[in-house]
Structure formats: C-alpha cells, structure tokens
Amino acid sequence: MNGTTPEQLTECAQRIGYSFNNPELLRHALVHRSWQAEHDDSINNERLEFLGDAVLGWVIADLAFHRLGDMPEGKLSDLRISVVNMNALAELARTLGLGDFILLGKGEDAAGGRDKSSILSDAMEAVLGAVYLDGGASAAFGLVEKLFSPALEAALPHLDMFDAKSRLQELCSRLGYSSPTYETDGEGPDHERIFTACVYVDGVERGTGIGKTKKAAEQIAATQAHLVLSQQDDA
Q1: Would you please indicate which residues are annotated as catalytic (active-site) residues?
Q2: Which end of the chain is more exposed for a tag (fewer CB within 10 A), N or C?
Q3: pTM for the complete prediction?
Q4: For residue 99, what are the contacts with CB-CB under 8 A and spacing of at least 6?
C-alpha cells in the first residue's frame, strides 16, 4: 500500500479520524523526500511537518495549561516533552498504521523506512499540519485533543518521574557513581534538526536518546540510563 489512490487516502483518513475536504493535503503529508527524489513530485512533507510541529506544541501547551492550572512552568514543559517526542509520535503513528501509507523511495522502503521512528514521527506531524490547513485551528485542536489526551492523562500520575536527569543524578549519588555527563549532537537543517544524546556514568555509556530538542534527547537518554542502573542496583 502506498497511499496514492483515492481509496487508500480514504482508508488513511479513517485511521487518523479526520475526513479531509481536500485529500490532496493528506497525500502531501505522506510524501517522504526519498519518494520525491525518485518521482516527478514537486513537493515533500517537510513544510507540513514544520507546521504540524508548531500546531502540536500549541495544542498540548493549551491543554496542559488549562487542565493543570496550578502546575509550575517547569513541570508543564516536562509533561509536554513526555507526550510530544519522536518516540511518542512514532508509536502513535504505528498504532494508527500510518506507515502503510507513507510514500517512500525504493531504497528507503527496502531499508525498513515504514517503521523508522524519525520518518513516522515526521509524517505524523505533517498530517497534523495538513489537518490545520484543511479544517483550520478548530479541526486541528480537536484531532490533537482526541489523539493525545489519553497520553496526557496517563502521564499525570507519573509527573515526578519526568525529570529523568535529576532522577539519574540522585541515583548515581546514592550508588556512589560520579555525576552523569552528556554528549549531544544535532544533525539536519534547522526546521527538522534531530538530536542524539549519550549519557556516561564513570566513563561508561549508560543510555542514548533521540529527540527534536537537546533537552528531549537527554531526558530520554537519562531515562534509559536510570533503568539500566536501577536493574544493577536490584541485582
């Protein structure tokens, strides 16, 4: 399935939960640059992904702000990162089966691109950008609220766990390790920059993380390192 026929676009829209007035916007959101490079396509989904990223950030910030009126700014930021990151977006895309419809070049498709977190998360954001253009702010807000409210609600009981870097620092201190250090690199143009973070404890790599911000990547790496060191502590 490659999302090029009207029937396939209709099925994709049904999985997303939004009926497009202009299905061509949905197709636009599914065009990966590898497909564009191999076909006579004038567009790819990168501009829509840029727009969708902004729409998603706005809606999640609005939902968190109004539902959690007494929560300080730092916790609101941690909550947003926990819900809006590459891994979370990719998992949502997998749940919706979005990978079935992404238009990929032959090489990227053969390399398993339909299940790559970076491609899936970008496509998910591009779809949100397409919904915003198709139905306006109200339609985009409604779809994001429907798709992401369960993750927000599930995250609320675990807010104290979101500052993974602080938790890792405390665990290292308790176990007698040195303070964790981070090495973070960014790749790609500014509008789609991807950060990869590695966290080291006593010179040993303990976790890695990938995210669209340096903070998100380091938080994910710290979460992984905390899990690894906790398992050692329990052994």
Answers
A1: 53, 125
A2: C
A3: 0.72
A4: 93, 114, 115, 119, 120, 123
